[in-house]
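Key result, reporting period 2: structure in, sequence out.
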């Protein structure tokens, strides 16, 4: 779908774009194809697309994947898509808030890939929600704010490392990211954009039942970035257990969360959970 076609659809449908819904449509064919290529789609794949907009990505996904489930919040766009893709039997379209939908209708997404140019304001909660599900998608290829992309791929000690990096990387290995310039979108967004590629870890770093402990651990640890992590964790764990666990991992009692790697948080979860049961 070219920019002229997008503008014509919006004009003829008298659709005024809604900034709060992050309606910046991707019209650059090279970037759209790059996103689809990164998804490594085959006809056996099922794709979840959040925020299809006017469908420029949807039409490429339908060419490569077996089926697409697209969730669009804006009724005007969903109505347009219904007519535009009326003859596409492999597209299921929902007019809904994607975050509400994911929470309301839990399902196993483990055989699915998430491929989308996400609404930027809800990109982080959407990814955290999916990464927290027992059956999370096998691959995630999403365009979002560059700042969020950097947090998603950050490692310990990087400026962007934090809660989002850890909650998502527990389930996904970052495979890289590429920038998308603002003029590839209509209208150009005020912020910089990038596409991130994430691959689900096989096997999982932690069993499902330890994930709540990991989440509590990293949330507490990053609740006050400048504070010593051990002090923050004392709200939930006895000092002697923490002392022994930190020593076992060779972590200084003075260490701050931003210096602790994903692997160390995983080990700490296992040790503290074993200590709780003992
Ligand atoms: N995929 C299209 C493209 O690349 O041109 C549109 C992407 S645009 C960045 C984000 C889209 O998500 C918009 O169509 C917007 O209406 C929709 N949207 C915003 N919030 C949403 C939500 N909570 N659930 C589902 N769709 C949402």
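The corresponding designed sequence is given below.
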């Amino acid at each position: 779908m070219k920019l002229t076609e997008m503008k014509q659809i919006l004009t003829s449908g008298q659709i005024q774009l809604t900034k709060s819904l992050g309606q910046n449509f991707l019209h650059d064919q090279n970037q759209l194809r790059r996103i689809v290529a990164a998804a490594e789609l085959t006809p056996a794949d099922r794709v979840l697309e959040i925020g299809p907009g006017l469908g420029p990505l949807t039409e490429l996904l339908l060419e490569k994947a077996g089926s697409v489930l697209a969730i669009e919040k804006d009724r005007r766009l969903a109505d347009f898509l219904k007519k535009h893709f009326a003859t596409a039997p492999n597209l299921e379209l929902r007019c809904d808030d994607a975050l509400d939908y994911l929470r309301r209708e839990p399902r196993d997404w483990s055989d699915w890939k998430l491929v989308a140019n996400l609404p930027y304001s809800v990109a982080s909660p959407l990814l955290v929600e999916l990464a927290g599900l027992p059956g999370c998608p096998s691959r995630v290829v999403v365009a979002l704010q560059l700042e969020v992309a950097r947090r998603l791929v950050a490692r310990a000690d990087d400026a962007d490392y934090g809660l989002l990096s850890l909650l998502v990387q527990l389930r996904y290995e970052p495979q890289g990211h590429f920038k998308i310039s603002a003029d590839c979108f209509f209208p150009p967004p005020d912020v910089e954009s990038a596409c991130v590629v994430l691959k689900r870890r096989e096997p999982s770093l932690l069993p499902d039942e330890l994930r709540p402990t990991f989440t509590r651990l990293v949330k507490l640890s990053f609740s006050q970035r400048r504070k010593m992590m051990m002090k923050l964790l004392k709200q939930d764990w006895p000092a002697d257990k923490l002392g022994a666990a930190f020593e076992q991992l060779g972590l200084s009692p003075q260490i701050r969360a931003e210096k602790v790697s994903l692997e160390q948080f995983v080990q700490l979860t296992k040790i503290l959970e074993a200590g709780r049961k003992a």
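Residues 24 and 186 are 5 Å apart (CA to CA). The two ends are 60 Å apart (CA to CA). This case is discussed further under Risks and Mitigation.
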